[in-house]
Specification:
- Among the domains are: about 1-80, Winged helix-like DNA-binding domain superfamily/Winged helix DNA-binding domain (Arc Repressor Mutant, subunit A, Orthogonal Bundle), CATH 1.10.10.10; about 350-435.
- About 35% of the residues lie in helices and about 30% in strands.
- The protein contains 10 helices and 21 strands.
- It has helices at about 5-15, 20-30, 35-40, 45-55, 70-85, 100-150, 160-170, 250-265, 265-275, 350-360, and strands spanning about 60, 70, 175-180, 185-190, 195-205, 210-220, 220-230, 280-290, 290-300, 300-310, 315-325, 330-335, 340, 365-370, 370-375, 380-385, 390, 395-400, 400-410, 415-425, 430-435.
- A hairpin with a 4-residue loop joins strand 5 and strand 6 (about 210-220).
- The two termini are about 30 Å apart.
């Protein structure tokens, strides 16, 4: 991520434009939630929740307990969103005809009532909150206790993390006091076909700087690395065992060379071939077979992505991504190995997908407290269709997919004002349809 004001607003508004994502942010502003808890609250398919979480990007983070929460960026976005939604009502009050003495007495009376009501409400709310917190903590403890017993045998050893840091990133861990933050978590991702996802968080501290380190493995394969400088930036970069290139593109190429020496994946060979001829600055796109390399490099910052592309269709989920900031590689994500391609044929256009979604909405209904809601009106505009190749069947095989959002003329029972329809891009069949709530 670059730090410019324009990019900050662009990311923020892009994340807030969908009602489901706004609802996720509002939920997380109240408390941390697991993936399963958000699914139950939103009542949408797990694949849709995964899509929205990926689009929220750095607004949402996952802590060491496996729960999602707002990042500082996310909290700022929620504050901005609430500021736009919560417009205070202005009422005209006319007291000019009353004498000053009566105005003063009336004001004292109102203030007393407000103070008494506030104290009563605070005491009542505090008692209820403490009771709810205790019950929730007890339930969470029992649940975590049972899950830990089941998942403890699946955890990746710390040696995998140390091997990656030493042989790939080349951070000199001996120059820091390294400590594990919390306990490593392991979770069975039902939305990823039962893949076991393991996450570890470390703290690297010395006398001049501190870094937080996040590592993710999926089914024992490396999947995610993130290095976040908490103290010492920008004059105290990480200490490496070997000198690192000063160009972010060249540094990325050298990193992939070391990564390839450890993993020996064929797609990394394609990435190295493309990086060898890439410009060190500016934006560029290169193709080699089904490997598509996208680079955006300016000064000491760079975003580099290798993704699978076939017949003009980009499969962004099957990709490897590198982020560099101030000549430091801060993020490496690799989920290329996780997915396979079922079809690359896009036989349904964006306009056709929107029409298919509207046709499907005509026969759609939902239930609220036992009452069926079907008499609703879908607006012609706005209607959007986002292309996002999506798993079908085993949840790890990707197919062309349109995520269509249809807005309703008003808010209907269940706080519903949006219909979301998934349309397969290869067949034109409706994959799913859901009633969503959110501010338009």
């Amino acid at each position: 991520m670059f730090g410019s004001e324009e990019e900050t607003y662009s990311i923020m508004f892009s994340s807030l434009k969908h009602p489901a994502r706004r609802k996720i942010l509002r939920m997380l502003s109240e408390r941390t939630l697991t993936f399963s808890e958000m699914l139950e609250e939103l009542a949408i398919p797990s694949s849709h929740l995964t899509y929205h979480l990926e689009n929220l990007g750095e607004l949402v983070i996952k802590n060491q307990n496996g729960k999602y929460k707002l990042s500082s960026f996310g909290k700022a976005s929620v504050a901005m969103m609430k500021g736009a939604e919560e417009v205070p009502e202005v009422q005209s009050k006319r007291f000019s005809v009353l004498p000053m003495r009566w105005k003063s007495l009336f004001a004292i009376f109102l203030i007393s009532i407000v103070l008494l009501a506030s104290m009563s409400y605070i005491q009542y709310s505090s008692f209820n909150q403490l009771s709810a917190d205790f019950a929730g903590l007890k339930q969470d403890y029992e649940s975590l206790k049972a899950e830990n017993q089941q998942l403890i045998s699946w955890s990746s050893s710390a040696s995998q993390v140390m091997t990656f840091l030493k042989d790939v990133v080349q951070i000199d861990v001996s120059k820091y006091q390294a400590s594990l933050v919390g306990s490593p978590t392991a979770e069975v991702r039902a939305d990823l076909g039962g893949v076991v996802e393991e996450i570890s968080k470390y703290s690297l501290v010395n006398e001049v700087s501190r870094f937080d380190l996040n590592m993710r493995f999926r089914d024992g394969h490396f999947s995610f690395f993130e290095l976040d400088q908490i103290e010492g930036a920008p004059n105290f970069p990480p200490i490496y065992t070997q000198p690192q290139p000063t160009s972010p593109v060249e540094a990325s190429k050298v990193l992939i060379q070391r990564y390839q020496s450890v993993m020996n994946y064929s797609y990394l060979d394609d990435m190295l071939t493309l990086l060898a001829s890439a410009n060190q600055t500016g934006s560029s796109v290169q193709m080699l077979g089904n490997s598509k390399l996208e680079i955006s490099a300016y000064g000491t910052n760079a975003e580099i992505t290798l993704l699978y592309a076939e017949d003009g269709t980009d499969f962004s989920a099957k990709s490897i991504h590198i982020t560099s900031h101030n000549n430091v590689i801060t993020k490496l994500t690799d989920d290329w190995f996780l997915y396979s391609i079922g079809s690359a044929q896009v036989n349904t256009s964006q306009e056709q997908a929107i029409q298919i979604a509207k046709d499907a909405a005509e026969n759609f209904s939902w239930n609220v407290n036992g009452t069926q809601v079907s008499n609703f009106i879908v607006l012609d505009e706005p209607a959007t269709a986002e292309f996002y190749p999506h798993p079908k069947g085993d949840n790890l095989t990707l197919y062309p997919y349109w995520y269509v959002t249809l807005h309703l003329d008003k808010t209907y029972p269940g706080e519903v004002n949006v219909i979301a329809v998934g349309v397969w891009g290869d067949t034109g069949n409706v994959a799913n349809i859901d009633a969503l709530s959110g501010t338009i």
